Amino acid sequence: GVSKDADGEVIKKQYKKLAVQWHPDKNRENAEEATVKFQAISEAYSVLSDPDKRQRYDRGELDDDDFDYDDFLRHFSDHFGDIGM
Fold it and tell me: H or E element: which one contains 12?
């Protein structure tokens, strides 16, 4: 899967793919699930793309309710497999 030390470009690329895949407008027949996943993907990206928030998460300073990095990485792995990191 995507490693915890993945750089910003890798994270951005994977975010864009997942955001397009799960955008509610692209999943009208399953809009409720797509909305939930799209929001989770967006929230995860907001943490990973912000150096301060990412450092706080890496230090264990963000609550589990704020962001689940492991779940985010699993989601990437489920959809994209090992990207060589």
Answer: helix 8-22
